[in-house]
Design goal:
Elements: E1 8-20, E2 25-37, E3 41-45, H1 52-59, E4 67-72, E5 75-76, H2 83-92, E6 93-96, H3 110-121, H4 127-140, H5 157-169, E7 175-179, H6 187-204, E8 207-212, H7 215-219, E9 224-229, E10 232-238, H8 239-244, H9 249-256, H10 263-268, H11 276-279, E11 289-294, E12 297-301, H12 303-311
Parallel strand pairs: 3-8, 3-9, 6-7, 7-8
Antiparallel strand pairs: 1-2, 1-4, 4-5, 9-10, 10-12, 11-12
Helix pairs in contact: 3-4, 3-5, 4-5, 5-6
The structure holds adenosine-5'-triphosphate and magnesium ion.
The site of magnesium ion has 3 residues, from α1.
């Protein structure tokens, strides 16, 4: 995807999400802004607890925004919305979850699990039509239609994640939030699931928000990548630009942690540890801002850092 002729599907503007009560609030997502273009895969990368799932859940309106807003196709979807709009969004934005062992209802048959969103919205017409839709959704993810009458425990991790994908697909979504969809899977089947997601995107014109905690996973699937650290996005760029010209020290530390196939290089490698105190000097007096360092390449930096990053 080129940055030209882009159409914005989702806008996240200065999003803040807090947990806790009146006495003590924890800011899980702090002033986060990004756009997702129609048809692209937008990668969101950061370590455990950095706020990735919280952002996904804010987009599907489970986590309320303490401030900022979320806009879908030009319409504000955070805060109060109409029932009709709610119904429409429930269908159009779907989420695939991290752990296929935990996210499927063990007592329900695949037929019911895949149909759950349809039952909620009552938008499937006849029972015969619903069955057809389930059959097609299972075929789309490479499963046999007869699996509909089985229970989740009869399936492997990879197959279970395919069921999770079918459950999202059956809604004919536009935007799919894939929240670490392969991190709980065996390494040997991760590529299959990634390839399936890529093929489905092409076939159905889907837009993805793809969440992961390491850069090597998102590199091959993402058009652009945002790096998040402790609730704040620190850098955002097209994938190849981020890899070729990382600016923020946290991005650099994530890049240095990616293993190389050469054992000799690996053995002598020094993994950079990101220690904010070591890298950022005068944030008290000169706080960082979210700035566009070069076209389409954003970084969280103060003036002095920006100059430094740009001169390299
Ligand atoms: N419902 C909640 N109540 C209180 N704190 C929460 C809640 N949900 C998330 N948090 C906290 O918000 C922070 C961000 O959590 P989040 O689940 O978004 O991280 P993540 O980046 O998805 O991590 P992981 O890679 O482990 O899934 C964490 O410190 C977490 O403990
Ligand atoms: Mg998460």
């Amino acid at each position: 995807m080129t940055l030209n002729n882009k159409e914005t599907l989702l806008e996240v503007k200065n999003l803040r999400v807090e947990f806790g009560n009146k006495n003590k609030n924890f800011v899980a997502v702090n002033d986060v802004s990004f756009d997702i273009y129609k048809g692209e895969t937008f990668g969101l990368v950061g370590e455990s607890g950095s706020g990735k799932t919280t952002i996904g859940r804010a987009i599907i309106r489970i986590n309320p925004a303490a401030s900022g807003e979320i806009i879908y196709k030009g319409q504000k979807i955070s805060g109060k919305i109409s029932r009709d709009q709610d119904k429409e969004l429930t269908r159009k934005i779907q989420m695939i979850f991290q752990d296929p062992m935990a996210s499927l209802n063990e007592r329900a048959k695949v037929d019911y699990i895949v149909s759950e969103g349809l039952y909620n919205l009552k938008n499937y017409g006849t029972e015969e039509n619903r069955k057809k839709m389930v059959e097609q959704a299972l075929l789309d993810v490479g499963l046999l239609p007869e699996f509909a009458s089985r229970f989740p425990h009869e399936f492997s991790g990879g197959q279970r994640q395919r069921i999770g994908i079918a459950r999202a697909l059956i809604m004919e979504p536009e935007l799919v939030i894939a929240d670490e969809p392969i991190s709980a899977l065996d390494v040997s089947i991760r590529a299959q699931v990634i390839n399936l997601l890529a093929a489905l995107q092409k076939k159905k014109g889907l837009t993805y928000l793809f969440v992961a905690h390491d850069l090597s996973v998102v590199r091959f699937i993402s058009d652009r990548i945002a790096v998040i650290h402790k609730g704040k996005i620190v850098e955002l760029a097209e994938t190849e630009i981020l890899f070729a010209n990382p600016m923020h020290p946290y991005t650099k530390s994530l890049l240095s942690a990616i293993p190389t196939p050469n054992p000799r290089v690996e053995r002598n490698k020094k993994i950079e540890v990101y220690d904010p105190g070591k890298y950022h000097y005068d944030y008290d007096k000169n706080p960082p801002e979210w700035v566009e360092a070069e076209p389409g390449h954003f970084v969280l930096a103060n003036e002095r850092e920006l100059k430094e990053y740009k001169s390299k």
